[in-house]
Please model this.
Amino acid sequence: MTSEPMFRKVALIGFGLIGGSIARGAKSLGLASEIVATARSPQTRERVRELGQEFGIVDQVVETNAEAAEGADLIILCIPVGACGDVAKEIAPHLKHGAIVSDVGSVKAAVVKAMAPYLPEDIHFVPAHPVAGTENSGPDSGFAELFINRWCILTPPEGTNAEATEKLAAFWRTLGANVEIMTPEHHDLVLAVTSHLPHLIAYTIVGTAEELEGVTQSEVLKFSAGGFRDFTRIAASDPTMWRDVFLTNKDAVLEMLGEFQEDLSKLTRAIRRGDGDALFDHFTRTRAIRRGIVQIGQDEAAPDFGRRHKQLGTKAE
Amino acid sequence: MTSEPMFRKVALIGFGLIGGSIARGAKSLGLASEIVATARSPQTRERVRELGQEFGIVDQVVETNAEAAEGADLIILCIPVGACGDVAKEIAPHLKHGAIVSDVGSVKAAVVKAMAPYLPEDIHFVPAHPVAGTENSGPDSGFAELFINRWCILTPPEGTNAEATEKLAAFWRTLGANVEIMTPEHHDLVLAVTSHLPHLIAYTIVGTAEELEGVTQSEVLKFSAGGFRDFTRIAASDPTMWRDVFLTNKDAVLEMLGEFQEDLSKLTRAIRRGDGDALFDHFTRTRAIRRGIVQIGQDEAAPDFGRRHKQLGTKAE
Model:
């Protein structure tokens, strides 16, 4: 790109799926003059250094969060939400006047509460949550296209500089995302139903299937195409990230769980009583939701998520 | 194909996703000299007739189940399990000596109980369940590759002719499936966990998300990539088929639901108490199950089920 980059120095603190995808996207679009990354573990830093040398997805890898933040125009914390407070405290003395500090956490109220007290007045704090991901994690799992056509939610605290918010929004839009602004509390309620509860349910059912009497684990794996395998994907998500989500969005998750339990009781009663009409009506209603998601481009129209099938006559290896 | 077809006349009673996929696979592999199909609704029969004329996936469409069964060597009921008893009664007088009668139902004990009393002694009854599918239904939804690398479970009642069982197994293997034989009761327990419970949970959570206060339906759809969208796929499955599954496999489903509820209570308690270690341990265990499923080829190794992503710089329409 020949036009002026959006930011001079971008610092990525943490380099898992999200950090690595931001780096790859921002680099390939020329959104920053310089991308500096760091990560907590020496192994990850070493791997990011290799990726930087081989594919140019970062310019520099530094040893500490403070060093990464030093002089950066945009600092994005790409770490589990439970670690955000400590890192904010650590980088605060090193932040440049007018820098934008953001994150990518799946919970927003707790992150704001943990980070805001440490950030100086002359810093623009614009928390963000790109609603995108895969079941993979680590520095190799990211890819530049991850955010395309997904939503990125910004939750700037009251009084945040509108220009800074718009600048971060423009950054995310260039990475391919749609941007929406809401309060941290509303974000946490919405995500409790569209993300946190589904993960909790998936983690539960996969655990249930793992330790049954009368059904072997081999059978669970073999016959998983009956539906179970769909749940195993999100139940393979990063354990640290998800532990922190449930610890920090407890109230909204428990509220949604209560709603879910009520609905499960209703369906269970219909099964026990043999009430076929109630089941049929419910199953017909839920079909429409799928259609809506496909219509707005939030999932594949192709059946079975577009999973590929081998050709007939060619047996699998 | 120049070699002798496996069956002379194959009758498919019902032509949804499974019936249509069998027809397409069997035709493209030359497994039958003649495939005759029928369906309950005149609209479906008309559509199958068109598909037969245009793509040659069936040779003939007839008006009644009796006519389809007449003289057939293999008759497969591809209909909701609740309808199998009545159809068995209807076709019984028309079955040819030595014919194999099978089905594709997701529940086996109830199907055996409903069908067996009507079938004459000189008929080989080999119930089957191909554990494969998509969220689509209807005569256009089938495809020849659906069964490749999936499992087909046969549950022949005691005393079933071994040659007939093997012949049906060979048919399914040629369609690409792996075949396993077990009792109807064990099948129903295994599928309760790998298929029926997951569907019940998905139907529940999608229903929950549909009628929340404080979160709009538009928000649920927009932010569904956080995990929710995965559940909507199986919650878009055919309502009639699934109503019948829950009505006919009630006991095993309720048993698995009990196990699930216990596990959900444990995780809920861990969230309420802020027990991060318990959550982390659980989330680490469930990861291994996903790896196992991918290793045995029952799901894509590609992240996110291999969902496709647009290229950067190209905004979605």
